[in-house]
Design goal:
Blueprint: E1 5-9, H1 13-25, E2 30-34, H2 38-46, E3 52-53, E4 66-69, H3 76-84, E5 92-95, H4 101-109, E6 117-121, E7 142-147, H5 153-165, E8 169-172, H6 175-203, H7 209-213, H8 216-221, H9 229-238, H10 240-262, H11 266-281, E9 295-299, H12 307-317, E10 322-327, E11 338-342, H13 345-357, E12 362-364
Parallel strand pairs: 1-2, 1-4, 2-3, 4-5, 7-8
Antiparallel strand pairs: 6-7, 9-11, 9-12, 10-11
Helix pairs in contact: 6-10
Length: 366
Amino acid sequence: MSHLTCGFIGLGLIGGSIAKALKAADPGIRILAYDINMETLEAAHREGLSDVISPAIDATFSQCDYLFLCAPVQKNDNNLAQVASILSPDCLLTDVGSVKTAIHSQVRAAGLEHCFIGGHPMAGSERTGYANSKAALLENAYYILTPTSLVPRDRLERYRALVEQMGAIPLVLDYQTHDYVTAAISHLPHVVASSLVNLVQECDSTDGIMRLVAAGGFKDITRIASSSAAMWQQICLSNRSNISALLAGYIQVLTTIREKLDAEDADALYDFFDSARIYRDSFLSASRGPIKSSYSIYVDIADKAGALAHITTLLAAHSINIKNLGISHNRESEDGVLRMEFYEEAAMQQAAGLLQAGQYSLHIQA
């Protein structure tokens, strides 16, 4: 039985996770890897992930059935030019960038439309780099495919099957639709979250009262503002027209609701919040998008010595890893004073079961 050979130009969080998911699904798959960080390549080889590591983008990759461009978006111009001359006729070229228009334009200019399908695994983590990559990152995450018009149907179907093999959910879109959709559900929210944080910073008093009492609700909707500034700078510049158009629509919505507020239009205010509630409640609970769910539990605990230690000891005894832990002094929109965040939903559910069995009153964040 012959196995696929998959090459990776860049082996960070996403590239490493895809490679690990492929290897987990079929240990016979050959992984060829290049990264500017030699320590990353050596770690991948030492762990048995990469079968071949290359110090450069060279003819080593002419063996590939699939070649994944996983470097930062701004680096893919040079990488694409280098792989163009070494691709075998049977190799399918793909990328993992969150914006697709630019790469499709570059592929068209390079004459590679016949063998390119753009890819965007809608998964991520606050942690970056190969050291934090894991096969499970892709599980049940949407993996958007943006084929060119010249890619044969059978190639698209084989790639779709490969994505399913990784544990992800393939979704085929044209690249223009992809960029508009991600501008709305991923890129604009980052702009909005950062704008809210900057607004509060500008309006805060010199003694920082707003920062001190920032409620759980504010922290939840601005969590993504903690993302990489350099990455979001590049995304905004790459998907400028879509983000700008949607931002104009958002500004209009804000202007309208301000007018209704100033006019004390009770019916309009109710409809504004109710329509948002109904649509929001229709979303799938599964975290498949680029803005990941926060797996959190709020727990009421007694204000006495040892109360916090009892909970953390209980979870540690069952090997449950806590991602973040904090005491909330503002419970305006929270049902518990202790907030615990977990890396995975399964860990959150296990912790909830243990705490409920211990007669703790808790609330699981939806």
